[in-house]
Amino acid sequence: MLDVTSWSRDLAVEIGGRDVINHAGAAALRLLADRTGLTGGLSRVLTRRGFVPVHDRGRVLADTAVLIADGGRVLSDMASLRDQGELYGPVASDPTLWRTLNEIGEPQRRKIARARARTRDHVWSLIEQRHGRIPPSRVADRDLGKTVVIRMDASLVIAHSDKDLAAGTYKGTWGHHPLMAWCDNTFESLALKLRKGSAGSNTTADHVEVLDEAITQIPARRRRDLLVTVDGAGASHGLIDHITALNGRPGYRVHYSIGWDLGERERAAIARMPKKTATWGTVLDADGSPRPTEEAGVAELTAVLREYPDGDRLKGWPPDLRIVCRREKPHPGAQLSLFEEADGWRYQLVATNTPNSTAQFLEARHRPHARVEDNIRCGKDTGLGHLPSTSIDMNRAWCLAATIACDLLCWLRLLCLDGPLARAEPKTLRYRLLHTAARIVHGQRKRKIRIPLTWPWASQLATCLLAALALPPPTRC
Q1: Which of 115, 286, 408, 475 is the most buried (most CB within 10 A)?
Q2: Is CATH 3.90.550 the classification given to domain 134-376?
Q3: What does the domain layout of the chain look like in residue ranges?
Q4: 259-273 in b/e burial notation, b at 16+ Cβ within 10 A?
Q5: Which pLDDT tens digit goes with each residue over 200-245?
Q6: pTM greater than 0.85
């Protein structure tokens, strides 16, 4: 009979060997930060007159982003870089890291945002050179071409200890309620506002602030064709009016696709729609295939609402506002309103300002907004799900470093990886690439990372590191 415990009979343990490193793949993230000009840009904006630190503050912030992208959750995780001195050289201590984050206030955050925008402009040019274009946002059976899609959503971050701005949330938990904006084309983190736990889901001022910050992160040449998507929490006069005002600039097109509330006027409009199935268009699934009209349908309510017997029921809203309605047979256990229970259909509404498009396309275009939940989930796995300090300023600086970490992982996939790894989530990238052990070999006045032949992803890691080393620097500061 086979002895299933025989694998350990000849094992022994000793301390020895030189030039062995762990987390060798994280060097690709550090190379990305350096070769794209991010580290240099952070260094310039964090320089203080008359103060020459031992560890450059831009270098420390970039290394913080690297450790977060590598899976770090607390400040002491900087040891994952510091203990690999043969690869990374001198790395800041924990007290220096603490001081660096503590020095980042509102003025520094604004400067860092400008430095990130300049770096992103260069990175997008590299992406275009490698792929021929910026990855398009895909909806149903087509893509949106050159349109850059900004998806906004809020999420809860639970606090397990006393922290500044932590408060009770709408779900009965305790923590913070940050509002975020992500680029659906590249999955980069464009903006984040760390708010108290009791902050509202539909606070207009917060949505406008985050949206404006997100737009400034988009390279100027790509801001002329934007789509902003928000769930029902963003359906406010202030946000829609703000986006409408952005369209006043010649040559600019900023469209929105925002979840809309099923209120009394909308229920009355649905009741006025003809009951026959032919009135409702076909709904497209995620792969573009049509669903039977007996199961789901889509129609536009704009004309019915505008021409109601007692007058325009959308009076006060922008004249180009359109309301699209989707209905479907509810699945078992679905939470329905009394109107939906009586009607037998579940309804979802979308507000948009996109002209000359069918209700079928507009509804299919809005549904992928759910992808922002995946971005947030990966962001929480990359530093945003745990705030390491009781100080709100420290936590804001940490979140800033975490959003940079999310960008580094996106750039790694777009500039250095191919195949399945170019679509892998952070956990997979860490196991297969970033946490790989290797050796540092010295010779001919050079250092060489030697990856074990037995590692299944050795060739992918080597290709990734070489691609990062070959990135051209930005032509301007």
Answers
A1: 408
A2: no
A3: 15-110+389-469, 134-376
A4: bbebeebbbbbbeee
A5: 888 899 999 999 999 999 999 999 999 999 998 767 889 999 999 9
A6: yes
